[in-house]
């Protein structure tokens, strides 16, 4: 495993453990709209290292392990970290926009950052297939995974599943998509039609995701 990916997983583990054991720490650094609007901007980053439970942590870190290695093999360590943290911040910014009228809205999780890394990997290899623990005999093309991930995010926002930043999935995907295109425009040539379709879906959900949430 690349040392940068491993370092991020360890950092998430340590902060998550601290959050499990210390409610004051958890509440101080989680994403909360009212606190952020009152100047505590650091929560937009620190909340991305806290998790609701071990299943939440495990899913995010497994996805980071699975897709992080793919992305970092095509970028420098510095650019990989740029994709990770830009996606994390984009996810937080979208969550803030989505919930700006609810000062008590709170969320945690690396979902935004991981979503950006997932989309970056899909853009690098849009036709690559993946298998997962719960579906070991089924292969999913990358672009199908990307669409499914976004639809799950919309469902999560609509159903308000748990204390998890589902809206951050969408913001993170947008961040990963845009930063990857900025850093390596040549990914467009990998599968132009699929890159355009994914871009249209991302942009469409960005503008109309809040309407879908209210359906």
Automatic annotation (TrEMBL):
Pfam families, sorted: Rhomboid
Transmembrane regions: 54-72, 79-97, 103-125, 132-152, 164-183, 190-209
Domain Peptidase S54 rhomboid span(s) in chain numbering: 39-184
Keyword terms of this UniProt record: Hydrolase, Membrane, Protease, Transmembrane, Transmembrane helix
Stated name of the protein: Rhomboid family intramembrane serine protease
UniProt subcellular location: Membrane
PANTHER family recorded: PRESENILIN-ASSOCIATED RHOMBOID-LIKE PROTEIN, MITOCHONDRIAL (PTHR43731:SF14), RHOMBOID PROTEASE (PTHR43731)
MF term (GO), any: peptidase activity
Biological-process GO terms, alphabetical: proteolysis
Family: Belongs to the peptidase S54 family.
SUPFAM superfamilies linked to this entry: Rhomboid-like (SSF144091)
Membrane topology category: Multi-pass membrane protein
Annotated source species: Tenacibaculum platacis
